[in-house]
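User: Can you help me understand a structure? I only have the sequence.
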Amino acid sequence: MTSDAAQQLTISAGEAAGGDRIDRFLASSLTGEEALSRTRVKALILEGAVTEDGTVTTDPSQAVREGATYVLTLPPVRDARPVGQDIPLDILYEDSDLIVIDKPAGMVVHPGPGQADGTLVNALISHCGDGLTGIGGEMRPGIVHRLDKDTSGVMLAAKSQRAHTRLTEMFAAHDLERCYTAILWGMPGENDGRIEAPLGRSPRDRKKQGVVANGRQAATNWRVIRRLPPFASIAECRLETGRTHQIRVHMAHLGHSVIGDPVYGRPMRSGQMPDAAARDCLAEIRRFGRQALHAARLALTHPVTGAALEFETSLPADMQALIGAIETGIARRAAARP
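Assistant: Let's start by predicting it. Here is the structure, written out as tokens:
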């Protein structure tokens, strides 16, 4: 679906706006159906889509001039790139503003290097069709948060500009609840705790995240749901912030990384196992093919209607099978004891 008509929005700067940044002023002045995120406004300014009293300005940080008239030209809505693909989705909720799905492990959220199609975005474009209302000038779903390819569970996307703008604000303010279920190596000494450790690019490997002194503030609350000695623990991890790989890095920092994590995992060693039966089970656990992490619960206020929304999903079959394999290993050890 395309539209050949560009849209022009005119905003006059009053006395109170004088001296403010243009990107911040314009973003705060646009409300309702016209609302745009500050990031999107900044991009439009850099593209030359904003004029001040008829003169193009391309500096988002330029100070607003009292009494000036600003015109923001939105480009015509164009067909999304990537294109839609008929990929089955497990839909938990959908209305005209947002859609909530249970994402399977193995599905990439957005096309990128090495994954040009077959993503969640391709699937949403196909499923939603004309229900997408031109987010940022494109007929595309608004991705406001992501799950790693091999993390399963609850994920939402905006279908309208008004929902996208509000959800972006909510995620930035951490104004929603996100709980994950993780199967961890070993057993923490405590039953619960809070990890507050700043995260950023690892100085040893720029492709990884790490706990670094000058990183962004990050906090994770965790509690043990069940212990599976001597192998593992099942834990609930609740995000206070939402940094890249936050739970995976924080739990590894705690000394109990997520089982199957290929990047941050620290598998238990055979020498840590008390007997041959435990070592046999350990080898089976180590073959688990992804990080055992599932986005189990998401609770938020609807970005448009204000209604309370809450979504929960069960552990996927592979994580249930992993727990079953650990339980079998525990039973074998018990049976082998004299």
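Now, to help you interpret it: The longest helix spans residues 317-336. Residues 91-172 form a domain with the Pseudouridine synthase fold (CATH 3.30.2350.10). Let me know which part you'd like to focus on.
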